[in-house]
Design goal:
689 residues; alpha/beta; seven-stranded mixed sheet; elongated; disordered N terminus
């Protein structure tokens, strides 16, 4: 009997788990890699949001463009790692925009997932694992030119073409692996072309990031990747405590998790497992095998199983069940045979669950578990050696709690994201970006502020009206207000009873009060950053009994407020005041129902008088229409229509019949119209919503 068979696993401890990609833990070597390397000692444990100053001295978030071939919901180690890093950078204050391919035609072209903007470019066809999209490099290059920093996840066939378009000093490359077997005609030529493209990008990059020194030094691009090089291990999520729901008795349970594709070498694991004699042993194979890039290997794996009743195919496991999967194992195996496997996310997931691992001797993969004293490696494609390693590892006594803690310290999401954040921030500052002083007052959720404080300068949010609340309320009345109200009521004509209408920048609430009088069947909410306005609006609502709800808050932070999901959004003379149009568009999307509609009315930036007045008046600014529409598209909004309106200025409270006739006649002219109206609709990521 194998020594594996003699070990009972029925009493295996339940454990904390996490999903991770591991890295080289030699921090001293990392410190000597590059002048841009960031030590753990350089990373503040108390994080503050990143802010830079634009050309007008206004605070905004630093912009990061991320380019990669596939992104969520596609499942792979690279996409999981990229998604976690992107979302962690958003939490640290970055404005992250992902440009990727639309590998599935049912996916929305534009989406926002956990604060990350996503643009998917149409795919024409696929060669091996590469999705061919002519619009992808064009769109990626355009975004890179407009960004403060760009990050390319390689392998990326288009990398060499788009890298030269990035402003000097703004490009970072995260090199995950050398492309391996592609199983396409002319494979050698294709691999050579890919290497040339990647080399060109790495030569252009200010920062070359690899996940371990072992893989970097054995890469085909080792010479160029060693220049401006730092080591940042990919991130790991702590999933908590699992229950061994997949166990079937006391025999040893061996597990594999990953796509069932040829480069994973699952058939060698099956061959090694079948050498175990214990009838109670189990091999749990979890992972997708349908519609996977590069082609499924399920047929060859099934042939290797040859009807062995101890082998279980679990298919794709949802995230919430992975913790129970790892809790059911006595050993985890990563038998990869191709250099596409440069790290092995799942082996660190297992280590963080306290499970020892057995991995093939691929560079970058082989050093993680032995360095933690919890596993072994074996020559790839050698089933007999894998069997011997399994016997040895399952028989080891391991301090699982200590293993979990050590793995979390090295590969936790926060520590990894802090290092990437610090490296990219250093690049941004080296390019000459000016760091904005942090606000002395946090974004409000209660009535606390009337202006944003940046250093010693107070930025008035409403061109001098912040202190004169009653005067401002009276100032808004008149002919122009009535015309705005008329257009808003026309916009809301299709609203159904009970629909939620949210006004961003509601001021003193006058418009919503009139809407409530005309449409008492609607649920109305207003948000404004000036607390005096909100206090005035609440007082008015109490006296009229309109039931309108008013909250203090910024358009950029709507997702932090406890607001109902809105079917209709209004913004009047608001967007030209906001510091971050991208964040405002995403904030609106975060509280909008699928297919919600948004009516934005702004001063017309084509009118010479509007340009002159808004450029010379303190507290005013020119509406950046094109920038707003780009931001709105990235946030999942689609423009439905636009109009030019208004000619009579607000100073004329009651225009005569002739002036009203002239307004109707000439307000459509670009240089005469005082306002620009834009209608948008939120397109959900899932069209079935």
């Amino acid at each position: 009997m194998d020594s594996v068979s003699a070990r009972s696993a029925g009493g295996r401890d339940e454990s904390e788990t996490g999903r991770a990609i591991s890295g080289e833990p030699d921090r001293d070597e990392q410190r000597n890699e590059s002048p841009l390397t960031v030590d753990d000692t350089d990373i503040p444990r108390v994080r503050t949001p990143r802010l830079v100053l634009d050309r007008r001295g206004r605070a905004r978030r630093p912009r990061l463009t991320v380019g990669l071939s596939y992104y969520t919901p596609y499942v792979s180690g690279l996409t999981d790692s990229a998604q976690r890093l992107n979302e962690a950078l958003v939490e640290r204050g970055w404005d992250v925009q992902v440009i990727t391919t639309r590998y599935d035609d049912t996916l929305a072209r534009h989406a926002v997932i956990n604060g990350v903007g996503i643009r998917r470019c149409r795919r024409l066809f696929t060669v091996g694992k590469a999705a061919i999209s002519p619009t992808f490099p064009v769109g990626l290059a355009r975004e890179m030119r407009q960004s403060d920093v760009s990050l390319l996840h390689l392998p990326l066939p288009e990398a060499g073409f788009v890298a030269p378009t990035a402003p000097r000093g703004s490009l970072a490359v995260l090199y995950h692996c050398d492309p391996g077997s592609l199983r396409v005609p002319g494979e050698a030529l294709v691999l050579s072309a890919l290497d040339r493209s990647h080399r060109r990008a790495a030569e252009r990059a200010t920062l070359n990031i690899t996940t371990s020194t072992d893989y970097r030094d054995h890469s085909r691009l080792a010479d160029v990747l060693s220049t401006n090089s730092i080591i940042i291990p990919p991130p790991c999520v702590d999933r908590g405590v699992g229950t061994p729901r997949f166990r079937e008795g006391s025999g040893p349970h061996i597990g594999f998790l990953g796509r069932i594709v040829p480069e994973k070498g699952v058939e060698y694991l099956v061959a090694a497992f079948r050498q175990l004699e214990d009838p109670n042993a189990r091999l749990l194979i979890a992972g997708a095998f349908d519609d996977v890039a590069g082609g499924s290997a399920i047929r060859s794996v099934s042939q290797a199983v040859a009807g062995d009743p101890r082998v279980r195919f679990l298919g794709h496991l949802p995230e919430e069940r992975l913790v129970d999967f790892y809790a059911s194992l006595d050993a985890f195996v990563l038998p990869s045979v191709d250099s596409f496997e440069a790290f092995g996310i799942v082996q660190v997931e297992a280590l963080m669950a306290g499970v020892p691992v057995v991995v093939s001797d691929l560079p970058g993969v082989r050093g993680v578990a032995p360095s933690l004293g919890a596993g072994a490696s074996f020559p790839r494609r050698d089933a007999s050696a894998l069997h011997d390693a399994l016997v040895d590892v399952v028989g080891q006594r391991i301090d699982r709690d200590s293993l979990r803690r050590h793995a979390l310290e090295l590969y936790g999401v926060d520590s990894v994201a802090d290092r990437l954040d610090a490296a990219l921030w250093t690049m941004a500052l080296d390019r000459g970006l000016r760091e904005a002083p942090l606000p002395t007052t946090a974004v409000p959720t209660t009535s606390t502020i009337d202006a944003v404080q940046l250093g010693d300068t107070a930025i008035d949010l409403n061109a001098g009206w912040g202190e004169r609340v009653e005067d401002y309320a009276a100032h808004r009345e008149g002919w122009l207000f009535e015309r705005r109200l008329s257009r808003v009521l026309l916009f809301l004509a299709a609203a159904r009873p009970g629909d939620v209408v949210l006004e961003m920048g509601c001021g003193t609430g006058g418009l919503l009060e009139r809407v409530a009088a005309a449409r008492p069947d609607l649920t109305l909410c207003g948000v404004d950053p000036i607390s005096r306005y909100i206090d005035f609006a609440r007082s008015t609502a109490d006296s009229t009994g309109s039931g309108i709800r008013f909250e203090v808050g910024f358009g950029e932070s709507l997702d932090t407020l406890d607001l109902p999901v809105a079917a209709w959004i209004l913004s009047n003379d608001v967007l030209h005041h906001v510091a971050d149009l991208e964040l405002t568009a995403r904030g609106a999307a975060s509280i909008a129902a699928p297919w919600a509609r948004w009516l934005a009315v702004e001063p017309n930036p084509e009118n010479p008088w509007v340009i002159w007045y808004h450029s010379r008046t303190e507290g005013e600014a020119i509406f950046r229409r094109r920038e707003f529409l780009r931001a709105a598209r990235r946030a999942g909004w689609s423009q439905q229509g636009t109009e030019r309106l208004f000619l009579v200025p607000h100073a004329v409270r009651t225009p005569g019949r002739l002036l009203r006739w002239a307004e109707r006649l000439f307000e459509r002219w670009p240089i005469l119209a005082g306002g620009r109206l834009i209608e948008l609709q939120r397109i959900p990521a899932d069209p079935a919503d």
